[in-house]
Amino acid sequence: MLPLRSSVSLEKKLLSFSRNSCPSTITQSLLFPSHGRLVQLKTAVSATGVAHREDDKGVNTGMASTWDLSEPEPLPPGLLRELMPRHVAVVMDGNARWARRRGLPASSGHEAGVQSLRELIELCVKWGIRVLTVFAFSSENWFRPKGEVDFLMGLFERVMESELQNIHRQGVQISTIGDSSKLPKSLQKLLSRAEQYTKDNSQLHMIVAISYSGRSDITQACKRIARKVKDGVICLEDIDEKLIEGELETSFSDFPSPDLLIRTSGELRLSNFLLWQLAYTELFFAQTLWPDFRKTEFVEALHSFQQRQRRYGSRNS
Amino acid sequence: MVTTDSIRRSSARIAQMPSFALSVLWFLIHLVISIFFIVLGIADAVENYLISSGFLKRYDAINVGKLRYLAIVVDSEDAMQINKALKLLQWLTDIGVKHVCLYDSEGVLKKSKEIILERLSCAKLYEEGDEKSVLDSKTMIIEFTSQSDGKEALVRAANLLLKRLRSLGENQEEKIFTEAQMTEALKAVGSGGPEPDLLLVYGPARCHLGFPAWRLRYTEIVHMGPLDSMKYGSLLKSIYNFTLVRQNYGK
C-alpha cells in the first residue's frame, strides 16, 4: 500500500517524503528549507533607493496583521510552474484535536486554524494557484454542540471583518457556496458584502464552503434544471452531465473541478464535500492537524501532486 | 617568489571550496536518503511477508464484520488483467469480506462479470437488498459498476424525478428534488447500491476515477498502487486499519 500520510517532524517528514518524492527532491528540500516559521531576511529598497536588510517574521503574528505579498515568490525547489494545480480544495480538519492535545478548548484550535488558512491563501496567491476552495463548515457540523457552532459562526464573522481589506488588497475574490439560509443574518450580510466588494479581483478566487453538502449541491442543481424545463428554457431531452455541472454551486468558477484535494488530520474521506466535482481529483491525505499545516506541508502536497502520474478516464469530468 | 598567477590560482581554488563543500554535502545527504529509501522498501516487503504469513497476530483477528461494504476501484487498463482481479477477489473471500463493489470507469470488469462469477465458486451477483442479507461464511456478493453508474446514473435519476414532477403539477420541486428522492430514483434506474465503508483504489493515480459520487459521502479511501504490485499483506493491513477508524460524521 502506498501510504498517504505525512507529518511535521523531520523523522516523519523523511517517512512521508519516501512515499512521495525521490532522493533528489528530499535533498533539495533539506538543503534549502523553506519553513514558514523561520526568520527570513529580506532585502528592501528604502525611499532613498538604498538597499538595506531588515528582519521579518515569516508568519503573521496576529489576525489583523498586514499580509506580506509585496514580492512575487519563486516556487520552492523541485516544483514546476507548468505542473502547479489550478484549483486546490482543502478540508481543514483537526482543529479540535489540536486543542485537545494541548489541554485547550476547541475554540483555541479553531483560532489557530485561522493562521494556517491565512498562510495558505498567501501561498496560493504567490504561486499562481487560481482557485482555492476551503471546506469551512459542513451541513453535518450543525449537529455539533451549540456552543461550538455559535463560536464558529462568531469566528467566521470576526475573521471576515478583520481580513477583508487585506484580502481585497491582494486581489482575492471571495465567493461562498452552501446553504446560507441557516447562517446568522449578520454573517449572511457580511459574506454578501465581501463577495460584492471583491468581485472584480482576479489574483485568486477563494470559494468558502459553509453549511455545504455535496449531495445537496447535486440535488439543488437538478432542482434548478427542473425549473428551467418548467419555464421552457431547456427541453427534458437536453439534460446531460454538462447541464448538471453548469448548475452546481461551483459552476461560476473558471476551474470548477479541483485538481488537488488536501485533507488534514489523517482522515481518509471526503465527508460529503464536492462529491460530483472530485471524480478525477488527486487526493492527498495529510496526517498533520490543520493548525500545524503550513508552507512545508503544502509544498509536500504539491510535490506529491506533481510527481503522481495523473490519468483521467476517457471522458473528462 | 610568489607570482601573480600563483596567487590567482590559489584564490580560484579557495573560491571553489565552498561550492565543492556543498557538492559533497549534497552527495552525502543524497546517499543517506537513498539508503533510507532502500531500508524502507525492505521494511515494507518484510512487513508484507510477516502479515501474509500470519506472524503478526493482530491481523489474525480482524473484525471484518465492521466492513459491511467494500468497494474496489481499478484503473481500466489494469482491469483487463482479469486474473489479477480474480486473485484479489479470492483474497477478499479468504479474509471474509462479504459484499464487494468492483468499479472501473470503462466497464471492463462489468463486461467480464460472467467469467469472474464463474471462476469464483462462491460468488453471486448483487441484487438490490442484498446488503442486508445474511450470508454463509463462504459466499461473497459482487456488484459490478462503471462510469454509467456514476454521473450518467445521476442524469437518468434527475430525468426520472423530472417526469414525476410533471405528473404532480406545478411548484412541487421542493417535494420531489430531495436527497431521499434522489436516492430512490438512483435505485429505480438500477444504480442504487449502498455506500461503501472502504474504497481501495488500485491504479497509478490517487483518485477514485469517477466512482458513483452519490455513494462516497463518508467512505474511507485508500490508494493501494497499481494492480500489478498488489500484495495480500497491504490488503489485510488496509482492512485492519479501517476497523480501527472511528467516524464522527461531522458531528
TrEMBL record, chain A:
Q: Which domain of life is it from?
A: Eukaryota
Name the Gene Ontology molecular function terms of this record: ditrans,polycis-polyprenyl diphosphate synthase [(2E,6E)-farnesyl diphosphate specific] activity
Q: In which pathway does it act?
A: Protein modification; protein glycosylation
Q: According to its record, what are the GO cellular component terms?
A: chloroplast stroma
Q: Which residues cross the membrane?
A: none
Designated name of the protein:
Alkyl transferase
According to its UniProt entry, the function of this protein is described as:
Catalyzes cis-prenyl chain elongation to produce the polyprenyl backbone of dolichol, a glycosyl carrier-lipid required for the biosynthesis of several classes of glycoprotein.
Keyword Transferase applies: yes
Q: Which family does it belong to?
A: Belongs to the UPP synthase family.
**Which key words tag this protein in UniProt?**
Transferase
**Short name of any one Pfam family annotated for the protein:** Prenyltransf
Q: Which PANTHER family match?
A: DEHYDRODOLICHYL DIPHOSPHATE SYNTHASE 2, DEHYDRODOLICHYL DIPHOSPHATE SYNTHASE FAMILY MEMBER
Q: Which NCBIfam families match?
A: uppS (TIGR00055)
Q: Which cofactor does this sequence's record say it needs?
A: Mg(2+)
| Originating species | Trapa natans
Keyword match Transferase: yes
Q: Which InterPro entries match?
A: UPP_synth-like (IPR001441), UPP_synth-like_CS (IPR018520), UPP_synth-like_sf (IPR036424)
In the record, biological process GO terms are: plastid membrane organization; polyprenol biosynthetic process; response to cold
EC assignment: the record states 2.5.1.-
UniProtKB/TrEMBL annotation, chain B:
**Alphabetized GO MF terms:** ditrans,polycis-polyprenyl diphosphate synthase [(2E,6E)-farnesyl diphosphate specific] activity
Stated EC number for the protein is 2.5.1.87
Q: In which pathway does it act?
A: Protein modification; protein glycosylation
| Catalysed reaction equations from the record | n isopentenyl diphosphate + (2E,6E)-farnesyl diphosphate = a di-trans,poly-cis-polyprenyl diphosphate + n diphosphate
Q: Which keywords, in A-to-Z order, does the entry hold?
A: Endoplasmic reticulum, Magnesium, Membrane, Transferase, Transmembrane, Transmembrane helix
TM helices/strands, residue ranges = 20-43
From which domain of life does this come? Eukaryota
UniProt-recorded name of the protein: ditrans,polycis-polyprenyl diphosphate synthase [(2E,6E)-farnesyldiphosphate specific]
Record organism: Trapa natans (Water chestnut)
